[in-house]
Structure formats: C-alpha cells, structure tokens
Amino acid sequence: MIIAILVLFFTVVLSGFLVKVFPPHNGRWLKIALSFSGAYLFTITIIHLLPDVLRNGNTQSYGVGYWVLAGFFLQLVLELFSQGVEHGHIHHHQGRIGSMPFLLLGSLFVHSFLEGSILVEYGGHAHAGHAHTTSDNFYLVLLGVALHHVPAAFALMSVLLSRLENFRKAFLWLLIFAVGSPLGIFFSNVVLPQQAPDGLLYTALTGLVAGNFLHISTTILFETSPDHRFNRTKLIATLFGLTLALASDFI
C-alpha cells in the first residue's frame, strides 16, 4: 500500500515539472502518451477489471452493469467541470487570469480518488468466501493509473500556469490532484475493511472505475485521431499499450 501511495503521488508531482521541459503548446508527445495510456487502460479494463468484478460472488452479475454505467456517465458529468483535463485537454484562455478553477480541481480530485480506491491489498483476508492475497490486478491497475496521471498532471499544470502565471502557486494547487489517489488507497485499505467486510462496496467501486476507465480510454483513442486520419506514430503507441497490457497475462 505504501509503495502504491508513493508511486501515484510522485507520478503527479514529477509530471508537473514536465511543463519546464515540453512547451504546453506543443502537444505531439502528449498525444503519443495519451494513445499509449488509453490503450493500456482500455485493455486492462476489458481483460482484468470487468472479469474480476463479475466473478465476485457477493453480487449478482447483472447488477455490476449498473455500476459500470454509473461510472461511465459519472465521468461524463465530471468532465463538464474538468474540461477534459483527464485526457489531455489544455484550455489556456478559459477563466480569468489569477482565478482558481476550483470546479476543475474538485472534479479531478474525485476522479483520482475513485481510481485509487480500487487498489486494494487484501493481505489474505476472506471476503464472503473469497480468500485473497494481494489482488492479481493490483500492480496492473497501479501502472495504468500512473500512466494515465502523467498526461493528466501535465495538462492540469499547464492550465494552472495559464491562470496563475506562477509556477510555485500552480504546483501547490497541483498537490490536490496528487493526493487524490493516495487518499483513495488509504480509504479502501484502512477504512473499508472495517466497514464493509462483505466486499459489496469494493464491487461498486470497481464497477464505477471500470465505467470511468471505459469512458476515458475510448475518448482518448477517438480524440487522438482527428477526422479518422491514419497516424502511424499514434498507431504504434496504441499497439504498444495494448501489447503491454496483454503481456501481463503471461508474466
């Protein structure tokens, strides 16, 4: 759990410094990173997250679909406030200079918290007939969330800089996004084991995040191909993300 918290926190923190290396107006590398992370997220959702939550004996399988739908459309609502920062949208001119985009930060925090909440290390606890050690999907999802946070943190830092025009102030506000997933991990690993030993809430959270991932990943993959034009670099990045996720089954 500690390793996951540190990985996700410092992924966002270090990605915030990318604005000093890559000009925000040059989005070529960002599209490549998004294509890779989008393909990886989509693949692990289909071959790991959904099967895992469907075989959970604590809920009827058809009920999981409601949570997946809820997560999909919750992300749609969150993006009304986040302006699509989750999938690399950078809006420099929306909002008054010096003002804080609190709704954007709030929606990204919720998004990040939910992602962290499904990173559960069961440690051998039995939940309604399921004896688990560390979840088989733990490190796969951890990598997916970390990869997804790199372009998201870069985009958010770019937006904050365009508003605040001060790197130090923007960086301090970026920390709200940075602590979202670590707090989600803490919530699921420390709070929930005492309050929800039957695992029903874990099922709901996993379904929500699966729907969330489906929305984000498909949006990324469609948006990085404007007018459906062939892009060899994007195709290679997408196939690489797909291959990495598929290879996890053989490791």
Structural class: mainly alpha
Strand content: under 5%
What is the chain-wise order of helices and strands? HHHHEEHHHHH
Unreliable runs, pLDDT <50, ≥5 residues?
123-134
Q: Span between N and C termini?
A: 21 Å
> How many DSSP-defined strands?
2
Largest sheet: 2 strands, antiparallel
Radius of gyration: 18 Å
**Helical residues, percent:** 55-70%
Strand order across the biggest sheet? Answer: 1-2
| Overall pLDDT confidence | 80
Shape: globular
* Structure annotation, total helices: 9
Tell me the layout of helices and strands.
Blueprint: H1 2-16, H2 28-54, H3 61-82, H4 102-117, E1 126-127, E2 130-131, H5 138-164, H6 167-178, H7 180-195, H8 200-223, H9 232-247
Antiparallel strand pairs: 1-2
Helix pairs in contact: 1-5, 1-6, 1-7, 2-5, 2-8, 2-9, 3-4, 3-8, 4-6, 4-7, 4-8, 5-6
Could you characterize what this model shows?
The chain contains 9 helices and 2 strands. It is mostly helical and 251 residues long. Strands 1-2 form a two-stranded antiparallel sheet. Helix 1 packs antiparallel against helix 6 and helix 3 crosses helix 8. About 5% of the residues have low confidence.
